[in-house]
Specification:
Elements: E1 3-5, H1 7-12, E2 17-22, H2 26-38, H3 40-45, E3 46-51, H4 58-71, E4 76-78, H5 84-90, H6 102-116, E5 121-124, E6 143-146, H7 148-151, H8 156-164, H9 189-198, H10 200-212, H11 225-239, H12 249-258, H13 265-269, H14 271-274
Helix pairs in contact: 2-8, 9-10, 9-11
Bound molecules: iron/sulfur cluster (SF4).
């Protein structure tokens, strides 16, 4: 059972390492900003890190650069040192899935555990006050968890405000509700369509991986990526989400967000990758 601390208890701990994992997503980024702006002593000793799977969107790297400048500290890059394709071979070409999350284990969890080693560590996690879920913080007894947004009663709109006032909101949120690998199987159909439109070369790469994968498995159960985006386009038309070039950007942004079911059950499963 992972031990949870309050932020006051965490601040009083002068012996442990303090770490904050950035996923490239909005909540962990807002947490780093919140710590820097409100807990400068903690910020000074905080180790900000990013688990790089090598399959992130270019927008994520750009955003990390902006965040790094704002924090005035290096964001330490950790990772498995092997690309996804290596792990796919190790798993006999079977694609990862919500039930077979070897990607998270090999490309996120193990690098994190190896990074912290056997040191006593306090891990800061960006779960908000309006969320009811636990984040992965490892079952290792030397790792304790803190949820500063819960302690400070900060909810979704507060998180957006923190980002608007500092580093901005990562660009890919205009078409995707989470960070993580470009081929992440937790994506919804409209996000696959967003990938095709914004990063056609990555969409083609994901299709290629799907074609070569073992036993005819697909990223989305029961259909190929081409079928997924076809359905997404159909649904988009039905919902009237096609914008003309004259639609103001602000309106596009609001309507896309309204149609995104953020914080759905799948997000809970992917918390270490997308928080
Ligand atoms: S983002 Fe998705 S594909 Fe990437 S490691 Fe996490 S669960 Fe796996």
């Amino acid at each position: 059972m992972v031990k949870h601390l309050t932020i006051q208890q965490a601040m009083a701990d002068t012996h442990s390492r303090h770490v904050l994992g950035l996923s490239g997503g909005k909540d962990s980024a807002a947490l780093a900003v919140h710590i820097k702006d409100n807990y400068p002593d903690l910020h000074d000793k905080m180790e900000y890190f990013f688990s790089d799977t090598g399959a992130e969107l270019s927008e994520v790297y750009e955003f990390l650069g902006v965040l790094e400048s704002y924090l005035g500290k290096e964001i330490i890059r950790i990772g498995s040192e092997r690309p996804f394709e290596h792990w796919l071979k190790v798993h006999n070409d079977f694609l990862p899935s919500p039930k077979q999350r070897w990607c998270t284990v090999n490309m996120k969890l193990k690098p994190f555990e190896s990074y912290v080693g056997n040191d006593d560590v306090i891990s800061y996690i960006g779960i908000r006050a309006d969320e009811h879920r636990d984040g992965y913080v490892s079952t290792k007894p030397n790792i304790k968890a803190v949820f500063p947004f819960k302690d400070d009663d900060l909810e979704r709109e507060d998180i957006y405000q923190i980002l608007r006032d500092s580093v901005g909101i990562p660009k890919y949120y205009e078409w995707r509700s989470r960070s993580g690998c470009y081929f992440c199987f937790f994506q919804r159909r409209d996000e696959w369509l967003g990938l095709k439109r914004h990063h056609p070369e990555l969409f083609e790469k994901a299709k290629e991986i799907e074609r070569k994968s073992g036993n005819g498995y697909t990223w989305v159960q029961g259909m190929t990526l081409d079928q997924v985006v076809e359905l997404a386009e159909k649904k988009e038309k039905e919902k009237g989400l096609i914008f003309s070039d004259k639609t103001p950007d602000k309106l596009k942004w609001q309507r896309v967000l309204e149609n995104m079911e953020e914080d759905d059950a799948d997000d809970q499963a992917c918390i270490i990758c997308s928080l």
